[in-house]
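Why do we care about 3D structure at all? Because function follows from shape, and shape follows, mostly, from sequence. That is the central idea of this module. The next example makes it concrete: a single protein chain, its amino acid sequence, and then its structure expressed as tokens.
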Amino acid sequence: MEKTNTPLTTRRNFIDYFLGTSLGATLVATFYPIFKFLVPPQIAESTESSVVAAKVSELKPNSGKIFKFGSKPGIIVKTPTGEIRAFSATCTHLDCTVQYQEGTQQIWCACHNGRYDMAGKNVAGPPPRPLEQFTVNVRGDEIIVSKG
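And the structure:
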């Protein structure tokens, strides 16, 4: 029986192992961020049914303010006559955040020039549905917005 003197780890085996693990690490470093971007983490829907959106004293007539309602934005608008209204601030077209325009007295989506009137109804642009309207209650100086 002939005995071989070949070591278990040769230079070629070491280089193959080194290049293989380097290639594997490069592939993981490249595709893991892409995978995490394509599959975002699940965000639990907020169970809040009402929030304090603003103070009456900080809203001047014919102005709007974005507030956070759970995990989504909301918009509160004080009309020129002093009436306070609240809507979801997410455009029904592509979920962009809307804003109140004092000059036109409309809620406007900057993404595709969508417009909503003061009742939340879509009046121009591509939005297919009206904005979700919230219930507004005023207690003292606080404006409390609730769903439903």
